[in-house]
Design a protein that fits this description.
65% of the residues lie in helices and 3% in strands. It is mainly alpha-helical and 599 residues long. It has a two-stranded antiparallel ribbon with strand order 1-2. Strand 3 and strand 4 form a beta hairpin. Helix 9 packs antiparallel against helix 22. The longest helix has 55 residues.
């Protein structure tokens, strides 16, 4: 199931047999197949840099899962009731009872009276002796501030992915990384010295913004360092390291004991990333495709020396070709150029919806298991499911490819969600068991089983969607493209604090909508191209030329020939097609609307 390139992307040679001068320089643009193999392939130099991208994964993981500890709700007990509030509790209860049934009034009234307290005793289950909630007594009427704090970190991350992803395409990956590291040190350490919740939430917004930029730039750098055979495994190792950081967080919290110390311990090690500006070079792919040839030349010699490659014999002609292009002016690109493509933006939208759905429905499954618990047992259960998901991704993607693996896990997610929503209601309605306790126990066990399966598969969907987008998006706008998918994942994660803010009202409808999204994704995923083992697209025209190859072999016989769909698609008349296919528009007889007919 290989990706298919439009035939027009390889223009016919000129009359003298040489490549047309209007086309980009072929050898310099073929990074995976020509440039990197000439420089030693995935050699010692690349392996060392990939390992450097793994180290910050621990720090990012600590910050990503810090909400569970900094903002965890404690067990509380009132040690000094509010006498003034207690005297008016009966009046409040009578007011609530007006227009409500007795049971509802009693429940709401009990919540009101439980909050009539002037002094609380808190007990945290997260290993800390004090966190943000206990410091400022954010319970009862102040509990909404906790959800806003969680909300602010995620919203900051969304803006960071969108804005800094575009900046990474414009200025380069390393400048964005350096500025983000400096900024996260300032804002992250300032969070530990917040004087109130308004200051805490505001600083967490900027902390999330900077952490998102660091994660995105490292993700893109890692992808662009690797040859096709290494991309997926190196990315999955980074994902396992992030889960490893999640597993270490409870122990770190127990050692710190105080939330301010924990915040400082999480952020301070980012100082170790400051030398990256000297240790970590700019992406060679980005330098070549944006015509920063002077910097690319220096880096190519540096890579060759580190990988013990003799550059004196330039049999492929790469260095000589580079010398002739040193006077070219650099070019800039922006992710907004996606709007002018025909296929690339559709692929990006499909993966954005996949990412949003995966992260959003993961919260629905997790809520069924956690049920508001903050114990270490449930925390470790979530981490164990994430580890299992990453481990299973290896053989599934190796066997079915990117597209087949994503489709498989999305189908499992949809089935788990549909069974949890429908089957459990049928058990309660048509069960042959007359024992209500036995029926409820069976219902709960099925709910747990489907939730665990759903969390397992939805985590795989989310992880694979982001990686898939990094392979489909061309180098010139890869930062912005990956930023769009990561921002969509952030929107999916926003569902958790939003539902908590509204006290889980409308949760069932929310779950139903996301289940419908999984069905929509199942329909759209087969339209994506397969990228396993394929070179990364470098230019927008190469990314636009990635077309899907049918999943089923029998499907190929039903594909229309290009000449049969010309009047429908009008693809030959678009300006983009005229750019990538400057010829007379003729196509081989075996060309189809979906790729090349193989039989």
């Amino acid at each position: 199931m290989d990706a298919v390139q439009l035939d027009g992307l390889n223009p016919p040679p000129a009359e003298n047999g040489s490549v047309s001068q209007s086309e980009p320089h072929k050898r310099l643009s073929q990074v995976d197949t020509v440039v990197l193999p000439f420089l030693g392939g995935f050699g010692r130099y690349q392996r060392r840099l990939v390992a450097l991208t793994w180290i910050p994964a621990f720090l990012i993981s600590f910050s990503q899962f810090s909400d569970h500890f900094l903002l965890g709700q404690p067990d509380r007990k009132c040690v000094r009731p509010d006498q003034n509030g207690t005297s008016s509790a009966r009046e409040i209860f009578d007011l609530i009872a007006t227009g409500n049934d007795a049971a509802t009034a009693a429940a709401e009234g009990s919540n009101v009276t439980a909050c009539m307290c002037s002094e609380w005793r808190f007990e945290l289950q997260s290993g800390l002796q004090q966190n943000v909630v206990t410091k400022w007594a954010l319970v009862c009427d102040g509990e909404w501030k906790v959800h806003i704090a969680k909300f602010s970190l995620l919203v900051g991350s969304i803006f960071g992915y969108l804005l800094m992803g575009a900046m990474a395409d414009w200025l380069g990956r390393i400048p964005v990384l350096l500025v983000s590291v400096l900024s996260v040190l300032v804002f992250g350490l300032a969070v530990a010295f917040s004087v109130d919740m308004a200051m805490f939430s505001t600083l967490r917004f900027f902390e999330g913004f900077c952490l998102a930029a660091i994660r995105l730039s490292l993700y893109v750098l890692r992808i662009e360092l690797c040859l096709p055979a290494w991309r997926f495994s190196m990315t999955m190792i980074a994902s396992l390291i992030i889960v490893g950081g999640q597993l270490l967080m409870p122990g770190l919290a127990a050692l710190c004991r105080d939330w301010q110390v924990l915040q400082i311990i999480i952020i301070a090690p980012f100082v170790l990333m400051l030398p990256y500006v000297w240790m970590f070079p700019e992406s060679l792919r980005w330098l070549l495709v944006t015509q920063h040839y002077q910097r690319a030349k220096q880096q190519m010699y540096r890579i060759a020396h580190s990988n013990s490659v003799d550059t004196a014999t330039d049999a492929s002609g790469i260095l000589s070709e580079l010398e002739t292009e040193l006077q070219q002016k650099p070019k800039t690109f922006c992710v907004t150029q996606l709007t002018g493509t025909r296929n690339l933006w559709k692929n990006t939208v499909v993966l954005c919806v996949n990412s949003l759905t995966g992260y959003g429905i993961h919260h629905c499954f997790a809520r069924s298991v956690l049920e508001g618990s903050a114990s270490h047992l449930h925390y470790y259960a979530l981490a164990a499911i994430a580890v299992a998901s990453c481990m299973v991704l290896f053989p599934v993607v190796a066997g079915f490819g990117r597209r087949g693996g994503l489709l498989t896990f999305m189908i499992i997610t949809a089935l788990a969600s549909l069974l949890q929503l429908g089957l459990l209601n049928l058990i309660g309605k048509y069960s042959l068991w007359h024992d209500a306790v036995l029926r409820d126990t069976l219902n709960q066990r099925f709910s747990y089983a489907f939730s665990i399966i759903g969390m397992f598969s939805s985590h795989a969907v989310s992880t694979l969607s982001i990686f898939y987008c990094a392979e489909i998006t061309p180098t010139v706008i890869r930062g912005g493209g990956v930023g769009l998918v990561l921002a969509s994942a952030g929107f999916g994660m926003l569902t958790a604090p939003l539902m908590e803010l509204h006290n889980q009202k409308g949760f069932f409808l929310h779950h139903v909508i996301l289940t419908c999204c999984t069905l929509l994704c199942i329909i759209c995923i087969p339209l994506l191209p397969e990228t396993a083992g394929q070179p990364l697209p470098e230019t927008i025209s190469e990314g636009e030329g990635l077309l899907r190859r049918p999943i089923l072999h029998g499907e190929q016989h039903h594909l229309l020939a290009r000449t049969e769909v010309r009047e429908y698609s009008r693809v030959q008349d678009t300006p983009l097609h005229q750019i990538v296919n400057p010829g007379n528009g003729s196509m081989p007889s075996n060309s189809t609307a979906n790729g090349v007919r193989t039989s």
